[in-house]
Amino acid sequence: MSSLAASTSALLRNWKSLQPTAPSEWSLSGLAGRLVELSGSENSSALTAAFGLVRQAQLLGEPVAWITPHTESFFPPDVANGGVDLTALAVVRIFSAQRLTPLEPRSRTRDSRTGGPRAYERAMARAADQLVRSGGFGLLVLDLGSLQIAMGMLSRLLGLAQKHNTALLFLTDKPDRAPSLGSLVSLRAQAVRRRTGPDEFTCELQVLKDKRRAPGWSHKEVCGGPAGLH
Question: Containing H/E element for 95?
Fold first, then answer.
């Protein structure tokens, strides 16, 4: 099992309960029509919260698409064990036009043979544009890692998200003091995790920016670990 799979496994298996401080805000309905950035220095924490939204969208009958350029984005068995229907999750893997290869995990290293990270950033933005423009998805997740999205494309995606009432969630790897993707991001949260008991972890989202209300509120999800962490 890879390091990303192992860390994901520690959080994504078996959502035990949801304990949101503000239940109407971190939800599909609360994020619809908005650009949302979820960051975490430990990506598995952000993945936990992201797949909580995926599961919620599926329970509401809303199609979901997951866009990623990485060789490893999430560990499917643990996502399935958490209640997500993988057969109903559209996963869009972004490849380089030059070599048809994905990025290394969490990498943004420039490589002249693959066109560098900008090629992946443009390709991810175009994929998101086409999917949200279709009006067929309630939630789109862009697993950016350390990639960026140009301001012009963010503006276009925001207009489309508002038109089709779609939630656009950007997953980024950065500390809380780092700047967000841009001023058009409506809500930004930082994910952290901690062990709170035997076979139990708490993933907490600290909201750093919220254009609809004052920042500072939080959202918590309590999750079980895999057999090796019981």
Answer: none
Question: Do 38 and 173 touch, CB atoms closer than 8 A?
Answer: no
| Top-confidence residue, 192 or 99 | 192
Between CA 99 and CA 92 the distance in angstroms is 17
Cβ count near 196 (within 10 Å): 12
Q: Which string of DSSP letters, residue by residue, matches 2-38? A: -HHHHHHHHHHS-EEEEEESSTTTSSHHHHTTSEEEE
Average pLDDT over residues 210-216: 86
Residues pairing with 203 in the sheet:
193, 221
Helices (H), 39-179: 43-59, 76-81, 116-134, 151-164
Q: How far apart are CA 200 and CA 68, in angstroms?
A: 28
Average pLDDT over residues 14-23: 41
Q: Tell me how far apart the alpha carbons of residues 218 and 192 are, in angstroms, rounded to a whole number.
A: 11
The two structure tokens encoding residue 26: 């971190």
Q: Which of residues 44 and 28 earns the better pLDDT score?
A: 28
Q: Are 70 and 103 in contact (CB under 8 A)?
A: yes
CA 13 – CA 82 distance, rounded (Å): 5
SS3 172: strand
pTM summary value = 0.81
